[in-house]
User: Which sequence fits this backbone?
């Protein structure tokens, strides 16, 4: 992805089983990315795909986590009994953050992805 004035971190990917149907996992994933304020580019319930970006806050200070963008792609596969969620994510930051971005934005990407994952597959109680 080419964006002028931005630096990008490495893409991280993971695959996780979900103890829910594919449809339920998709609904949870969509709810999770919307709760995290992602702007969805692709929301394909039949194909099980969600692709979006969480943009930086308009009043974010350079160097803060709020200045980081997070790009996320989810692919939900499976059937009525069990689903699997494949994710790919990456942070993007303004060029003036080139020094802080690897630490600040990677932490933000990790935390956002953890919250999305927890919504899709809540921890056992």
Assistant:
């Amino acid at each position: 992805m080419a964006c002028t004035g931005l630096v990008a971190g490495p893409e991280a990917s993971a695959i996780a089983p979900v103890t829910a149907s594919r449809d339920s996992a998709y609904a949870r994933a969509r709810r999770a990315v919307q709760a995290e304020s992602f702007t969805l580019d692709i929301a394909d319930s039949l194909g099980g795909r969600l692709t979006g970006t969480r943009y930086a806050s308009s009043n974010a200070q350079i160097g803060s986590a709020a200045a980081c963008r997070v790009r996320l792609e989810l692919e939900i596969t499976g059937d009525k009994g069990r689903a699997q969620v494949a994710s790919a994510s990456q942070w993007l930051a303004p060029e003036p953050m080139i020094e802080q971005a690897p630490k600040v934005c990677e932490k933000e990407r990790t935390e956002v992805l953890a919250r999305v994952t927890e919504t899709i597959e809540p921890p056992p109680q």
The mean pLDDT is 93. The domain at 6-120 is CATH 3.30.530.50 (Alpha-D-Glucose-1,6-Bisphosphate; Chain A, domain 4). The chain has one domain: 6-120.
